[in-house]
Write the structure tokens for this entry.
Amino acid sequence: MNQRADSRNAGTSMSVRSMIQVALFGAIIVILAFTPFLGYIPLGFTRATIIHIPVIIGSILMGPKKGAVLGFVFGVTSFINNTMNPTVTSFVFTPFYNLGEFSGGIGSLIICFIPRVLVGVVPYYVYKGVKALTRSEKVSSPGLILAGMSGALVNTLLVMNLIFVFFRDAYAKANSVAESTVYTFILSVIGINGVPEAIVAAVFTLGIGKILMKKNIRDRLGV
């Protein structure tokens, strides 16, 4: 009887700890998202972001399930920002915004949420894969770098390619480019926006990850 009670108490304690962990990282995401020019940096044709960084680090530390929850929070902040504080292409992220003939739809929700959820899943498996290949028990610097880059790139590449799938014509008109060259324009956005984001994510994931992945720090965090 005592063993069952102890088991229930241990399970409750772990559940509360898990919620606190997710809430902590979620709070960081929200602060970044709603601090002007910090989490989302308007560039006119799109927004650059660093919000994927806590999602990536949370994924590596806490696993893909909690990472997916953090990615969903990321998606919610994007949805709110593009609805309440839109740019010319915000219709690709929210169905509740339109600019003249340009309007969002179900594709907007797919673009807004699916890539961001995967930002919380992919880096965990990339890091674990690199660790398995190197067969090292220590914190893997290459693993952290590649996990950071993969999280940023999965966001940029999926978002921009899904825009092409769902909104290529409207996106071309909104950016005043020819429909025949819209994918070339999308590739330029990936290069100008996505590549620097991936480099920044790699640097931050390495720097922060090497600290948080230390055993004594992980024990304090309960991860």
